[in-house]
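User: I'll paste a sequence; please echo it back and then give the predicted structure.

Assistant: Echoing your sequence first, then the prediction.
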Amino acid sequence: MTKVVCEPEQTNRLGGIVLEQTGSAADRTLYHLKNGVVPSSTDGWPYVGRQAERHEMERLLHLTSSGQGSVKFISGDYGSGKTVFSRSVEANALQQGFVVSRIQLNKSCLINNWETFYAQLMHHLMFEEDGQLCRDFEHLFDAWIRRLRQNSDRTQAAGELQRVIDRMHGFHHGFARAFLTYIQARIRNDRELAYNAASWIKGEQNIPASLKATFGVKGSVGRNSSMDFLKAFVHLLQLLSYRGLLIVVDELDLIRTVRSDIRRTCYENVRFLYDGIVQGDFGPCAGLFLATPHLFSDHEKGIPSHPPLDGRLGYPGRTAGPEPADLRRPVLHFSALGEEELNRLTRQVIRLYQKAYDYTPRISPEGIRNWALLSLHQSSRIKLGVNTRSYLIHLVGILDTMQQHPGRHRFHSELKLVEQDGVYGLVDASYSKPNE
C-alpha cells in the first residue's frame, strides 16, 4: 500500500537530518549555497535578475490554464541558475493549482522510451492540498472521493462519476476501466484493489495478469498507449478542478551522450511531445526543459543534428550578430549576471548571514564581493560574468572565514574593483596598490 506523502512547504529537515545548531531557514539556505545544491523548496533563496523571464513563464502558465499547452526550453551553463529558476516556476504553478512532475533524466530514464518516461512522470507528481505539498498519486483524488461518498443523492454521485469515466473513454478504454475500478474500490474501502488499479494507471509493469483481470485490463502501459494515458490524465486533472499539469525535464543534455539511434529517437520524441503540447492535444499541459547551450549548438550530437526539432526552436545563440531578446521564443538563454545583479545577490546573502549567525561583516558588501571574486579567480585580474553557483560557494566561504576567524586582519581590508582598458582588477583600497 502506497503511503500518502504530504509535507509542509517549509520543512525543518535538510537531507533527512534535523538541523540542531540554529534550525533557522537562513542557516539551511546557507548550507545549500555553500554545497552548491538547490533544495526542493527555494523559499528564502537569494534570487536576482531573470524578472522578464519569470514574467514570461507567468504568461505561459496563464495560457496553459486556459487550455492552450505551452513549452519552454531553458539554455544555460551549469551553475547559471536554471534549476533555481525552474524551482520558482514550480512553486508558482503549485500555488496556482497546477500539478507538477519533475523528471531528472538519467541513463535508465531518457525520452527514447515512452513507457519509462510516462511511469517516471506519474511517480514524481507534486501538488498542494490545504497549504501542504503532497507527492502521492492517490491523494490527488481524496477531495473528490469524499464528495462522492458524502453525497446523499446516490444517483447524482453515480452520474458525476460516469460523466468523468465517459470523458476518459474518449482517450483510452483501458485507462477509463482502470480508473473506474480505482474510484469504486476507494469508495468501498477496498484498498488492495485500489492500489493495484492505481499502480497500473501509473505505468508499473510487474502486475500479475490475475490482478489485472480483476479490473478488466490486459497487458501493461506500452509505447502506443502511454501518450493516450498522459492525455487522459491531464484532462482528468482538469475535470477535478486542477489548473493543469507542468512537466519539468532536467538534464536534457544526457541525450548527447547516448548511441546515435537512441539519440535520434529521443529527439524525435521531444519533437512529438513539443508538437502535442503546443497544439493542445494534451489539454492544459506545460513543458519546461533544462539544458546547457551545447545541446542547442552541437551539430553532431545536439538538437541541430535533428532538423525537425531544430527548425521548431530557432535557438537565438546561432543568429548572426546581437539581437534584442525575444522572450517568447521557445528557448530562453541564461547569460551571466551583470555587476549590479551580482551586487544585489551579495547583499541578499549577507542579510541571510546576519539572520543565521547574528554576524555583521566589518567591510562593505562591495568589498566582500571582491574578496569572493578574488577567491573564485585566484587572481587580481577579474571577470565579472561569473558562474552564479561558483560565485555563491566562494561568497559563503569568505563569510564563513570572516565570521569564524574575526582576528584575521586580511579580511578587514576593502578591496576595490578598478577597470583599465576593459580589464578589471582588484586593489587594496587601504593602501591604494595592487592586491598581492
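The domain at 50-135+243-333 is CATH 3.40.50 (Rossmann fold). The radius of gyration is 25 Å.
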